[in-house]
Amino acid sequence: MIAARDNLPQLTPQEYFAWEEKQLHKHEYIEGQVYAMSGGSVNHARIAIRFIAIFDSHLGTGNCIIGNSDLRVKSAISQNYTYPDVSVTCDDRDKITTQYITYPSLIVEVLSPSTESYDRGGKFRLYRNNPVLIDYLLVSSTSIEIDLYHKKDNGEWIIINYQEGDMIELKSINLTFAIAQIYRGLVLTNDPEISQEG
């Protein structure tokens, strides 16, 4: 989640990596500027963990890497680095880098009111330049609703909206599961101050 641009001069990617190693919090790097990452709600964290657990169970000990919000994703066509909530790469080229991946086939962003427009707009524009990205999931943390941006074989992006009772199909990793697996036991509210139990 983007919080705010830090008041720093433009950095090169090498300067960014060296600088961020000394920081207490993560920062995304877009067009030479660094942006502090804000924290998320309890639901935000729980939803991200559910996706990681489902993906890990499905992919097992295979060839893929599942990343959480600590794993940077580098833009395939520029020197931009982001921290999606969840990412999956099965590309051998991502096994030779240690600080980031470049070729995820699947990215998940859990939405918050402050970042939803960026996740749907600017961030998706960065991600869709990736030649191997197939599925981009935008997941509500306040209602049972998930939007899947799926790239068809002809390169066209389509949007599929999933709601309560639906089965989610991710062709990128050959997985189908019930949306209820993500939202079970969560108290969904637009008020971040209400405690969330379950």
Question: How would you describe what is shown here?
Answer:
The chain has 198 residues and is an alpha+beta fold. The chain has one domain: tt1808, chain A. The protein contains 5 helices and 14 strands. It has helices at 13-20, 42-59, 116-120, 122-127, 180-183; strands at residues 2-5, 27-30, 33-37, 65-67, 72-74, 81-82, 86-89, 100-101, 106-110, 135-139, 145-151, 157-163, 167-170, 175-178. β11 and β12 form a beta hairpin. The chain starts with a strand and ends in a 15-residue tail after the last helix.
Query: Rounded to an integer, what's the Rg over CA atoms?
Result: 17 Å
Q: What separation lies between the terminal Cα atoms?
A: 24 Å
Structural class: alpha+beta
Global mean pLDDT:
89
Portion in strands: 25-35%
The spatial strand order of the largest sheet comes to 4-7-9-10-11-12
Give the H and E element order. EHEEHEEEEEEHHEEEEEH
Give the CATH level 1 class: Alpha Beta
Measured as a percent range, the helix fraction is: 10-25%
- Count of β-strands: 14
- Estimate the global geometry from the Cα principal axes: globular
CATH homology superfamily? tt1808, chain A
The residue ranges in which pLDDT falls below 50 over 5 or more consecutive positions are 192-198
Question: What oligomeric state do the depicted chains represent?
Answer: single chain
CATH topology: tt1808, chain A
Domains (count): 1
Main sheet makeup: 6 strands, mixed
